[in-house]
Each structure stands twice: as structure tokens, then as C-alpha cells.
Amino acid sequence: MKIYADNAATTKMSRTAIDAMLRCMEEEYGNPSSLYTIGQNAREILEKARNEIAAVIHADPREILFTSGGSEADNQAIRSAAELGKKKGRTHIISTAFEHHAVLHTLKRLEQEGFTVTLLDVHEDGLVRPEELEAAIRDDTCLVTVMYANNEIGTIQPIREIGAICRRRGVLFHTDAVQAVGHVPIDVAADQIDLLSASAHKFHGPKGIGFLYAKKGIRLTNLIEGGAQERGKRAGTENVPAIAGMAAALKEAAAHMEENAAHVRPLRDRLIEGLKAIPHSALNGDASRRLPGNVNFCFEGIEGESLLLLLDDRGISASSGSACTSGSLDPSHVLLAIGRVHDVAHGSLRLSLGEDITAEEVDYIVQNVSEVVAYLRSFSPVWRDLVSGKTPFIL
Ligand SMILES: *Cc1c(COP(=O)(O)O)cnc(C)c1O
């Protein structure tokens, strides 16, 4: 059996998205800035895509800016809010300890430039507490940036409450919604979101394209200078095929969102139940307030890296943390943020299910993870010490 269970890292492109891209590449190859017909055809595709994307998140098309992906959108959103704040003498930013590195590293850079950053603790359930966030707001706070859904443990944050607090306190609110867009319903107006980042390859669109929603009236800072594309806020000839592919993928994801979630959620829960039966294991993050396809476990006494390599031999693609941290031996900053100790955080496994997952595949995953965990423990010195009582079990 071959099972791709790493949809939080990236997704397989949908047929609809590929077809939309091929059409652009083969027929509508014009430059959207050109005045003749093939150029204007490309312009039309671009603006249609913008309309479709805006509709899905309840925004105005003029509030959608195309970027090269989630990372760029995060960078531009945060930089823009920081610059606006600085003009008013407000240089304090609030975020959380378990953000994506596109956010955390941008904040680090801003700290070097004189900004002050408060990183809120995330509780054991993987959720930020709105009252703690409100208590952290100061007179000089210019931005709150809290992710919509976490990329490792899938927990969905109380975005509407946070949005209401920020609006009431006059602070800009950015959310990295890369894991949420196309998977859970998003309404930037109802949620009172000022800035939102998204990436096509997390919802069956192409890689290297994403968008930034910026509420009307928010002046964006350019990361790329040049031509007047994207209302002068992001220079460079637009990647029309990728943009068309992104819009097609998002439209499709939005149209099937409810039925997809209704199919995946019970299978996610079946997987969680199955893995819970493994001794000295624990689910990371709240069991219900999480993305429909996300499962993340810690298994005591093993290393996640060995686990995922052995699962690969058995046809299962999974992750032990985020795509950016695999390959390095540092435990996940997300798991540390929710209070997992180093040794336990090392034995983590993320399985992010696709919409086409079946019960049979879930049972295959449970069977194989159980066998591989037992095998790895059989020669793990850490496990031997736990079993002999030399070190106490944590899970
Ligand atoms: C994948 C991801 C990103 C980065 O998006 P890219 O398009 O790969 O740059 C940012 N934030 C989160 C939460 C992600 O999951």
C-alpha cells in the first residue's frame, strides 16, 4: 500500500488546477500588462482568479495580493504592519511561540531593528487563550499575529475572539492561515482579520504561489520593487498559470469543504483511537479543535526520524515535525511550546490525511506504526531505562 499522509507539508495538485495551468501555458501566454488581446486575455484570467479567491474568504478582490507563497505573504503582512506602527511610535508586536518560521524569523529580524516582541505561551492543548492575549496588549502594540491553524499539531485558534479583541483595542491582526484556507471556512469580515496569508500548495494548487489578504485602507510595504504590478505593491510579471491553478484549486476545495471534512474527520478520529492503544503514547493538541486531517502523536522512547524512515519503507509518507525541521535533530519548537520535554518531543509523528483517505488505509497506518514503534523500542537504550525504572515514564 502507498499512502501519502503528509498533506500539511504539501498536497498533490488537483486535476482541475493542472488543467487550468496547462490552458494558461499553452494558450493564454500573454503578459497581463500588454495591451493587445492575448495580454488582455491573461489579465482577465488574473482578475477572475482574484475575484474567485476573494469570494472564498469573503473579501473584496481589491484586497487580494498575489505573492510567491505563504512565506512571502507572512513577511509582507508583518513588515507592513510594523512599518505602519513605527510611524505612530508603536513598536510592540504580539505573537505566539508556535508560529511558522516565516513568522518567527520575520519577528526576530524586526527585533534586531528595534521592535519588541511578546511571544505568548501556548497551552498544553495547543490553543492560545484570548484573555492572555488581551492582557499582553500595550499602548504601543501595533500588531497581533496568531496563526489560524498550526501546521504541526493542527489546532485551530480562537480567531474570531482574537479578531474582536484586536479591533476593539485598535491593533492590527494578522493570521497565517496557510493550513486553514481551503480546509475550514474562513470569513475575514466576520473574524475581523486585517491581514491573512495563504499558500496554494497546501490546498491542491501549485507551489510557489500564494496570496495576502490586506483589508482596505492598510498600506502595504513592498518587499519587491519594480513595475507597477499588484497595485504597485509587488513588482514582477504575474505568474498567471500558477495564479489560475491556485484559484481553480481553491474554488474546488471550497465547493467540497463540508463533504471533505465530513469524510476525513471520522477517519482522523479512527486513526487517533488506533494510535492511542500504543503504550506510552499521547496525542499532541486538542482532540476536537483541530484540522480535519491532522494527527500528531508522541511515542516515548523512540526517535521520530527513525520512525518516519521505517514507515517510508512500508509505503507511508509522514513527518516528524514540520517539513522545515526534518533533517535537523532539534526537536520541534511547536511541541516544546506546548510543554513537551525534549526526549518526548523527539518521538513525534505527524500524519496529515488527504481527502481521499480510506478506513482501510487508516487501519494499515495504525498496524504499521504500532509494529514499527515496538520494533524501535526493542533496541532503544532510552526505552530500556524507562522499562527498568531507571528513568520515569512521562507519558
Ligand atoms: C507551509 C506553510 C507556510 C509557508 O508557505 P510556503 O508557500 O511554503 O512559503 C507558512 N505557514 C504555514 C502555517 C505553513 O504551513
Which descriptors apply to this entry?
alpha/beta, Aspartate Aminotransferase, domain 2, globular, 395 residues, seven-stranded mixed β-sheet, binds pyridoxal-5'-phosphate, Aspartate Aminotransferase, domain 1, 2 domains, single chain
Word description of this protein:
This protein is of the alpha/beta class. The protein folds into 2 domains: 15-255, Type I PLP-dependent aspartate aminotransferase-like (Major domain) (Aspartate Aminotransferase, domain 2, 3-Layer(aba) Sandwich); 257-388, Aspartate Aminotransferase, domain 1 (Alpha-Beta Complex), CATH 3.90.1150. It has helices at residues 15-26, 37-56, 70-87, 101-112, 130-136, 159-169, 240-255, 257-276, 304-313, 333-337, 342-346, 359-378, 381-388; strands spanning 3-4, 64-67, 92-96, 116-120, 141-145, 172-176, 195-199, 210-214, 281-283, 294-299, 316-317, 348-352. A 7-stranded mixed β-sheet has the order 2-8-7-6-5-3-4, with helices on both faces. Strands 9-10-12 form a 3-stranded antiparallel β-sheet. β3, α4 (101-112) and β4 (116-120) form a beta-alpha-beta unit. α1 (15-26) runs antiparallel to α7 (240-255), α2 packs parallel to α7 (240-255) and α8 packs parallel to α12 (359-378). The radius of gyration is 22 Å and the shape is globular. It starts with a strand and ends in a 7-residue tail after the last helix. Residues 69-71, 74, 100, 102, 147, 151, 176, 178-179, 199, 201-202, 210 line the site of pyridoxal-5'-phosphate.
